[in-house]
Amino acid sequence: MKDRVEKFITKGIDFAELGRTAEALASFDAAITINPNSHLAWNNRGVALGELGRHKEAVDSFDKALAIEPEDAAAWNNRGNALGELGRYKEAIASYDKAIAFDPEDAAAWNNRGNALSEQGRYKEAIASYDKAIAFDPDDKNTFENRKNALQQEKQALIPTGIPADKKKRKKKRLQDAG
């Protein structure tokens, strides 16, 4: 049984690497049919569903993988990615935090955490997460780009949005009249 499950998982990964995501999903489903307790099959199924844009179903698959193997850092990271795609950034950050708790040197989880924090406008925290990712994987150009973008966004957030000139005058006048 174990060999058959592993063959379907390997076949699914091969399909996924070829961009044949629907066939990959079918292979992971076949592995799950043989062994519904294969956390790897559930995790890979979630990745395939995410690639197909079926993020809610992906979260459900990651939850099943995590019910079987709650300390699987990759599944927590993947769950965070799916939640981020759904705009559920607070939950995504919690998933990345779990991934990092189980694998503190997971540069991808630190980078993804930074992305979710940036989406929430929490740029200082995002930059700190990117710094951690860079410390663990200094060759990842994407993380450097994400960090640069967060720095720019943080800088933009600090610039006053500006009040139209005519409104500035009215506001100033009101302030003078109030005195």
Describe the structure concisely for a colleague.
The protein is mainly alpha-helical. The chain has helices spanning 2-17, 21-34, 39-51, 55-68, 73-85, 89-102, 107-119, 123-136, 141-158, 165-178.
Description:
The chain is mainly α and 179 residues long. The chain has two domains: 1-70, Tetratricopeptide repeat domain (Serine Threonine Protein Phosphatase 5, Tetratricopeptide repeat), CATH 1.25.40; 96-163, Alpha Horseshoe (Serine Threonine Protein Phosphatase 5, Tetratricopeptide repeat). The chain has helices at residues 2-17, 21-34, 39-51, 55-68, 73-85, 89-102, 107-119, 123-136, 141-158, 165-178. It starts with a helix and ends with a helix.
Count of structural domains: 2
Structural class: mainly alpha
Q: How would you spell out the order of helices and strands?
A: HHHHHHHHHH
Low-confidence stretches: 163-179
Task: List how many beta strands DSSP finds.
Answer: 0
CATH topology of the largest domain: Serine Threonine Protein Phosphatase 5, Tetratricopeptide repeat
Which percent bin holds the helix content?
over 70%
In CATH's first tier, which class of the largest domain applies? Mainly Alpha
Strand content: under 5%
